[in-house]
Write a structure and sequence with these properties.
The complex is a heterodimer of chains A (542) and B (357). Chain A has 16 helices and 23 strands. With 542 residues, chain A is of the alpha/beta class. Chain A has two domains: 100 residues, Alpha-Beta Plaits (2-Layer Sandwich); 406 residues, TIM Barrel (Alpha-Beta Barrel). Chain A has an eight-stranded parallel β-sheet. In chain A, strands 6-22-23 form a three-stranded mixed β-sheet, covered by helices on one side. A two-stranded antiparallel sheet of chain A has the order 1-4. In chain A, α4 packs across α15, α9 packs parallel to α11 and α12 crosses α15. The radius of gyration of chain A is 26 Å and the shape is globular. In chain A, α12 links the parallel β20 and β21. Chain B is of the alpha/beta class. Chain B contains six helices and 17 strands. Chain B has an eleven-stranded mixed β-sheet with strand order 1-4-5-6-7-8-9-10-11-13-12, with helices on both faces. In chain B, strands 2-3 form a two-stranded antiparallel ribbon. In chain B, strands 14-17 form a two-stranded antiparallel ribbon. Chain B is elongated. The chains are: A alpha/beta (542), B alpha/beta (357). Chains A and B meet through α1, β2, α2, α4 and α5 of A and α4 and α6 of B.
């Protein structure tokens, strides 16, 4: 018999424990066949038969399903086994005595890595404590959400104040003397930046198809940010690139191909987003585990198969001014100043200083400020970053907006907010509240993953994007896992979700009485939380 | 009951009778048994509304000049109201059976919520006219006739009744129904002569059938007679110029599926087509063949040919021939039971990750 040593990893240390009912099990093998983590396997158990004392003890052998006790093959609670079991004989149960993270660090001398989201939720969500409480009741008519024609578009690109626009008369016609900065009027919800590599080619293409469909068939001018993992040349050279915001992060992955494709591009991209940081792991660079660096990812990024760590900073940028002068200027120049360029940072105690500085923008080249809060997701991160660093989005967005208002320059550099939106189920409500607090728009990545069938959540379910073994075919480059994902259904569901969200945004704009996006209409918001009321400068109610 | 016409002057030596005074005077005269009124109004509201003869049978007749808003508001069957000239907003608001004839134009929201009777307008009517008209099947169908055109947002939320917009002298207008009419319309019928543009998506525009023509040809005679323009019948009765608008609730907006979009409009062979030859097939869980997460591998050095693996394989995927065992890729789902049950550990499960090429 195997000896049990207290120093070894034990079943009771694992975050999830398999509850298995052998009386219901028909040994069909489906659960073990689908478990991408290899966390369960068929096994033989011996059962002692009653002895009459004359014969030697004898045993029955029973085929059962057993959980592996392993640092690499442990159960993540994804629940695929329950989905395929015909008899409900198996399920993963959260282990309240979980000691896995301690055991892992002690055994491996390594920082623990995870994917997905933060799982340390101690603060509660500010947005859930805010309601839309300024309803048009006889003061002005509520609008009929189902029938009124609303204008939901929002600017992406630098907006000049009226006094900065050089106008003159030419034969009685008003003309603009100098070119205005490029600007695009887009849908206020952007599909956030998830890179090729971090997510499967099917997931990425499904988002791109959904984006094109929303524009061309539905008429919603939704834009998708590519993330920084290269962009397929076929997309760059197609007309659909006009719906794509190209990202450049510190790794600059894939930009050589973009540059080489430029002469053959028939459309300009929708914009460029310079990624300085992301909310889920602020101050940390991108991380793509080697398990996901498939051959096509190697090619498109120009790297070998290895863990790909992007530096936490753009090397060569040492200050806000330098960022504007060098990075914004270069990216504006890339498409000859025709394409708006924005920047994305992780929300931070310093965000307002950055935004104030950008607002000076002497060259009129700063086309948007994206702030990413701590509840955002990521393909892979160190758990310590994911759970313990970052800044909530709501007050930071508000601070930046009010800083601009203080200078009378709100709206000149559009603000976009993201990070954990839709966490409690209603994306449109979160988006609307942030817009009322001053955002021109919002962005989301993980919502798209959830639409596609991601089984993870914020309380430790799955969160294994970093392993490359995503059971839903989303955060993986494995052939048979990726092919679990139905590209057409995924794209269709994204489209449907946007159509539903569009209706829901209007359902909130109607009662407030706004035909256009209520950017900064904080008078529409109320809260029963005195602290939130004070901090966000919105009405306290009880 | 008296057939004598009560004449009311609402202005005397610059003293104007208030709406309340006028309506209470009318009520007292009705209680005295009078049924005919000829009123020189000065903007008083609600004239002719919620009134009935003392005997509950005789017909009431109001002849009005210069009325205020809501002429014939909440008016009943047996009431006839004739406005000599135009009337401001809300003519026939909640009309429940009266015949209301306006010899000129009507203001906004004419026939708003009308659920009975007939409203005849000899000119144009304003925005949101005909909105929320409805029909209670226990009563006659309300009708709303307009000689010229309606303002924008007409017939919103219309739930029943019949409206007729004759488009007379409106040949130059882009739409005789203005903009965004019929939004939220779920019932009733609107007949229109002339151009229609920017109408709500929830309705359909159709040609007339014989039943429609019969209704219109009879109704038009009566309408033109009431507004004293019978000479227009020939001009307005070219039925090829008419259309019928009805709600199209069941015609749900159908868009092409995203799948068809991908197949017919998206980048051919997908944007990753340079690297990846994806057939876009979806693997169910569990899968066989290439779709397996785990694949069994047999090494027979220690095999005792006991057939336990073969007998326990849930998919009957294991085949044997001359003590050589193999697993049929088209049946095997990669469950690992063969590995678990083999007494000699001949089967191992390989979980290598595969890439697409």
């Amino acid at each position: 018999m195997d000896a049990v040593n207290v120093n070894n990893l034990n079943l009771d240390d694992l975050p999830w424990i398999i509850e298995y009912d052998e009386t219901k099990c028909i040994q069909c093998g489906k659960c073990t066949a689908v478990c991408s983590f290899g966390a369960i396997k068929p096994d033989i158990e011996k059962r002692r038969k009653p002895s009459n004392g004359l014969q030697k003890p004898s045993f029955d052998k029973i085929l059962v399903i057993k959980q592996k006790v392993s640092y690499t093959h442990h159960c993540r609670g994804c629940g695929m086994c329950s989905r395929v079991c015909p008899n409900g004989a198996i399920k993963a149960i959260r282990n309240p005595n979980d000691r896995y993270s301690v055991r892992y660090r002690a055994a491996k001398a390594e920082s623990l890595k995870k994917g997905g989201r933060s799982n340390l939720n101690t603060e509660g969500r500010t947005l859930d404590k805010i309601k839309i409480g300024r309803i048009s009741q006889m003061t002005d008519p509520s609008l009929d959400a189902a029938r009124h024609k609303f204008e939901l578009r929002t600017p992406f690109g630098r907006i000049l104040s009226a006094d900065k626009i050089d106008l003159h008369l030419n034969n009685g016609e008003i003309e603009v003397s100098k070119n205005l900065p490029p600007n695009r009027w887009i849908y206020p919800i952007l599909i956030g930046d998830m890179s090729i590599g971090a997510i499967s080619w099917r997931m990425w293409e499904a988002m791109a198809i959904a984006t094109a469909y929303l524009n061309e068939v539905v008429g919603l001018p939704v834009r998708m940010c590519t993330g920084e993992g290269g962009i397929p040349v076929r997309l760059l050279k197609s007309k659909y690139v006009k719906y794509m915001i190209l990202q450049i992060a510190s790794g600059h992955f894939g930009w050589n191909r973009i540059i080489q494709a430029m002469p053959d591009m028939i459309e300009d991209p929708a914009g460029i987003l310079i990624k300085i940081g992301q909310g889920a792991k602020p101050g940390d660079g991108g991380l793509l585990m080697a398990s996901k660096v498939a051959r096509y990812v190697q090619e498109i990024r120009g790297v070998p198969r290895a863990d790909l760590l992007s530096p936490p900073t753009h090397q060569g940028l040492y200050s806000i001014e330098e960022s504007v002068q060098k990075m914004f200027l270069s990216m504006n120049a890339a498409f000859n100043f025709r394409v708006p360029v924005a920047i994305k940072v992780a929300a931070s105690a310093t965000s307002v200083s950055v935004y104030n500085n950008l607002l000076r923008d002497p060259y009129n080249i700063v086309g948007g400020f994206f702030i990413d809060g701590l509840a955002g997701g990521t393909g892979a991160a160190h758990e310590i970053s994911l759970d313990h660093t970052g800044h909530p989005i709501t007050s930071k967005l508000r601070d930046c907006y009010l800083a601009a208002v203080h200078q009378g320059r709100q709206g000149e550099i559009p603000l976009f907010a993201g990070g954990g939106l839709g966490q409690t189920g209603s994306f449109a409500a979160d988006a609307f509240k942030l817009i009322c607090l001053g955002a021109n728009g919002v962005f989301t990545g993980r919502l798209l993953l959830e639409i596609a069938g991601c089984v993870g959540n914020d309380i430790g379910k799955c969160n294994a994007c970093n392993t490359g073994l995503c059971p839903a075919g989303i955060a993986t480059q494995d052939l048979c896992l990726t092919k679990r994902l139905d590209i057409d259904k995924t794209a269709q569901n994204i489209v449907n979700y946007f159509i539903a969200t569009d209706m829901e945004l209007k359902k909130l704009m109607g009662p407030v009485g706004n035909s256009t996006l209520p950017v900064g209409r904080s008078d529409a918001l109320i809260t029963v939380d005195k602290h939130i009321s004070n901090r966000l400068n919105i009405q306290y109610v009880c | 009951m008296s057939n004598e016409t009560i004449k009311i002057q609402t202005l005397n030596n610059n003293n104007r009778m208030s709406t309340q005074e006028l309506l209470q005077l009318i009520t007292s005269k009705l209680e005295e048994g009078y049924t005919n009124f000829d009123i020189d109004a000065s903007g008083q509201h609600n004239i002719g509304g919620s009134s009935w003869a003392k005997d509950r049978k005789s017909e009431l007749l109001f002849t009005l000049r210069n009325p205020g808003q809501r002429v014939g508001a909440m008016a009943m069957k047996g009431t006839k109201i004739v406005v000599e000239g135009s009337a401001p907003a809300d003519v026939g608001w909640l009309n429940s059976g009266a015949t209301i004839v306006v010899k000129g134009d009507c203001g906004d929201t004419a026939a708003h919520c009308a659920a009975g009777g007939k409203i005849y307008a000899a000119g144009r009517v304003g925005t949101r006219s005909g909105a929320l008209m409805k029909h209670d099947p226990k009563f006659e169908v309300p009708e709303f006739w307009v000689l010229k055109n309606t303002g924008s947002f007409g017939f919103e939320f219309m739930g029943g009744g019949t409206a007729v917009v004759c488009g007379y002298e409106c040949e130059d207008l882009p739409s005789v129904l203005g903009n965004r009419s019929c939004v939220g319309m779920v019932g009733g019928t609107i007949y229109v002569r002339g151009k229609i543009d920017d109408i709500a998506e929830c309705v359909s525009i159709n040609a007339l059938n014989q039943e429609d023509i019969d209704f219109l040809s009879q109704g038009l005679v009566k309408f033109l007679n009431e507004i004293e323009k019978s000479n227009l019948y020939d001009k307005l009765s070219d039925w090829t110029e008419w259309k019928k608008i009805i709600p199209a609730q069941n015609q749900a907006k159908t868009r092409m599926s995203v799948k068809d979009f991908r197949k017919n409009h998206w980048v051919e062979n997908g944007i990753f087509g340079d690297f990846i030859h994806d057939d876009f097939v979806v693997y169910p869980m569990p899968s066989t063949g290439e779709g397996r997460v785990h694949v069994p591998n047999w090494n027979g050095a220690n095999c005792i040919d006991c057939k336990i693996c073969l007998n326990n394989c849930p998919e009957s995927a294991i085949e044997t021939n001359d003590k050589q065992y193999s697993s049929n890729d088209n049946k095997c789902i990669g469950c690992g039971i063969c590995e678990a049950v083999c007494p000699k550990k001949c089967w191992t499960i390989v979980s290598d990750r595969k890439e697409i090429s």
